[in-house]
Records
---
Amino acid sequence: MKALLIRDLRLAIRAGGGFGLGLAFFLIVTVLVPFSVGPDSALLATIAPGILWLGALLACLLSLDRILALDWEDGTLDLLACAPLPMEGTVSIKAFAHWITTGLPLIFSAPLFALLLNLPSQGYAPLILSLLLGTPALSVIGTFGAALTVGIKRGGLLLSLLVLPLYVPTLIFGAEVARRGAEGLTYSTPLIMLAGITFGTIALLPFASAAVLRVNIR
Amino acid sequence: MQLSVDNLSVARGGIAVLEGVSFRVTPGEALILRGPNGIGKTTLLRALAGLQPALSGDINAPSESIAYAAHSDGIKHVLSVRENLAFWADVFGTTDISPAMSAFELRPLANRSAGALSAGQKRRLGLARLLVTARPIWILDEPTVSLDTHAVAMFANAIRSHLATGGIALIATHIDLGLEADILDIAPFKAKPVNIQNDEMEGFL
């Protein structure tokens, strides 16, 4: 399993791996928002948590079809299915590798981008906490979507349509944590809900992903 | 340890392609499958490798004993030849990739990125993967595609030494590998053109 993780990370950072794709998209969104809504810093501070969460979510979405599609095309998935790794382990590792290459850079860069959007200073800790707890769910749900659409040529649109509704609860509670934090309110309730969603998806979805993948590689 | 198939039927895209396939291969033996295009060789081999369920019949093989190689080799173009092979060795819990590198003359290419290999060299890398899996039963689907005569001889030698150590090989191929192997023509097992009646399976899958 470690071999698979190392290989996935290595593939992501080598040429054409799309490592910086999500990060670049996140940067573009946060840089363009002040231009489009105007330089009113009070307004920016109000919408900053929502924009940051939406940007992170869309950045995640952008790289989902790479999780399994490339391995499907070159036959790696067939060979992994014959390997001594359980399919559940394979999809979990794939989701984890996606989180490391997409979610983690977003978390690290979020404070910088929050500065661009004039996020109030008390909002930084809850923002990072919410991203840290929320982005793993985005990767795990995304891997499930990728498993559903594997084998469909140009399945990116279908994948987005399937995954977006599943992302809604994470977005609601994640953005709520960041918003309440920025306004100096207590945010423990949405944070617990967010953590619940994340741990629930991590516990259950790999089984669903593995099951649909087994059907899809037939 | 042996690979035995009893009265097996397989389907492709919801249509039965082969039925009543039975054979038995014991250690040290190879079986070569022949048959016209579209007869179901690939489907049969995928069913044996556990990649798709059989319609009916039994496949008896020890669990986790099968190494499968098909048309695509699962090669990552941005990784080097050595990295590609070391990855599969790691996945299958083996560590020594040098015999596999030697058997398919990959040493001079070890540090080259797999994307820069020719089709035949990629195929050799894909076949070298079989050696690092250390599994006794090889299921090979058209393994000699894009190999030159020298590489085919290399491959035949790899099969021979695999059989000599008690391995089993099941090969779908159209060329003569020069192996002492039984040949099974699967054309007589062609299924009658009837759609599968199993509605439950059709509806869900």
Note: Chain B has one domain: 27-52+62-185.
---
Amino acid sequence: MTATEAVTTASSSRPSRRADRAAGSGFDWGQPFVYLVAIMIVLVSVVPVAYVWIGGFRSTPDLNANPAGWPDPWLIDNYLRVLGSSRFWGSVFSSSIVGVGTTLGVVLLGVMAAFVIARYDFRGRGALYSLFAAGLMFPLTVAALPLTILLRDIGLQGSFLGVIIPQVAFALPTTIIILVPFLRAIPGELEEAASIDGASRVGFFWRIILPLSMPGLVTVGVLAFVGSWNAYLLPLLVMAAGGMPQDLWTLPLGVQQFSTQYSADTGAVLAYTSLAMLPALAFFLFAEKRIVGGLTGAVKG
Amino acid sequence: MSTSVIQAGPAATAGPAPSPRIRRRTGQGRKWLEIGLFAGPALIVFLAFVILPVVLAAVYSFFNWNGLTPLERFIGFDNYVRALTDPLFLKGIGNNFTILVASVLVQGPIAIAVALLLNRRMRGRGLIRALIFVPYVLAEVVAGLSWKLLLSPRGGVNAVLESIGLGDLAQPWLANPDIALWVMFGILSWKYLGFAILLMLAGLQGVPAELTEAAQLDGAGWWRIQWHITLPLIAPTIRIWVFLSMIGSLQLFDMVWVTTRGGPVGATNTMAVYMIQYGQTQPGFGSAVAVILFLISLAVALVYQRFALRRDLAGATTSGVR
């Protein structure tokens, strides 16, 4: 990027290049360095994933002969086989139901609780926050066995809700811890103004807090969705052990099962793994812009 | 700035309404009703599906129980004594803390540095950010299976090393007890740096450009601006990341389970892996391990909260009030 371009593209809300130069030398050596570091980190992040994707285009004997080779020729048989199986699409469906249900549940319950903790003054507020924060210390693994027994007793074992409700419960601590500072940062003047205009606390929540905290809600929503999409232990206990048909297992269960069942067929395992990554990647690439780009405070507007 | 309605301190609440704004308050009943309606659902779900099972785990931990028979063979603290005298479990605790310290000291500075670097106008910024987040998006099962294939003796990593003349370095990475834990730490860092960077970037978005601009006009260089203005302003974000990272390190399970199951010879064993290994057939004993894991996490979290996070919560009542 040349200096001219930088000046023209720099918006008024950011430190301008002119000021940069006032502080330093004529040519900013930092910029090439930044790109170098960025490219290195990107390569480290992406190459292992690319290996899995590209490996999926190779036959298993080929992979065994030369693990680091390039596909020659590119074979799509592995991918076609996976895409033609009802089991893969059943897993996509199941992961979607569970992911959407978990996200909606945790965002709604989380923002309501965070609103109270962030903006009500009452006895026990600190205790309430600490209680939820303490939830961070309860890994699902600690509660896994009793949770399974509890779900069996209330008839949720082997159902979508049996995965969704506990996932909402275990995602609440992170959600609330992220949202509380967010809601707290919304200026008190806005609340005053709303109350002068006759809005109740509930009205303030719906009309001001929710819209203004949308970037934060998107953040926790994405985290909850990705967490649900990637969850392994709970679906294993509720779905696999709960007698749900294998076609309706979530993707991580499906991948694990597939890789165990076809462990000798490395090419097929790589293809299945690649395809299992795709939906989450697509969703995240879509949402990422909203997260990082959208986190600007309400005060500035 | 004047006092906002809800956050009026006790003195303002007790006295006569100092301004017309307060007239709307119809008393404590309404307030508690709202608090109950807003926080109630989350609280109920949380208590029923997080707290209750954990309490049940504590109960089971005092029994010699196979999960099938009635819960009647009470054995006191025997399960705890057995766990805490098992060298394999002690090794697991040590591994958890090694990963914890390494995560905070290595991943934290890298994440902050990368976020600072990327929080500027640059070509392809969006793409770079998106690609860095890729490992975080993957399921641990998927990432673990991928790395297991890559790091196997006949896997991609060794093949690449041989092809560039570094064949001497080739080895069974996850099967070598001397280095397996650090290889595991490498995989975890690869997986979770994206999350740290995401959080730091979100924190950086909250730093007003006016402040850094003003500092620039006053002649402050890039490093001084980051050190004296940006870092202090994103300190709450950093503290929360450290907290999440520490707790995550202590609860480490999925990645280890998928790649090594705690091997070789306990080199990558963790508390949670040990718990699942024994807890499946001996839920009583497994629950005792779960309680130990919980108590250790709780102790770490309380100490950290006492010294670091308390400041963030203390601001809760005052921010936006004065």
Note: Chain B touches chain A through 118 residues (CB under 8 Å).
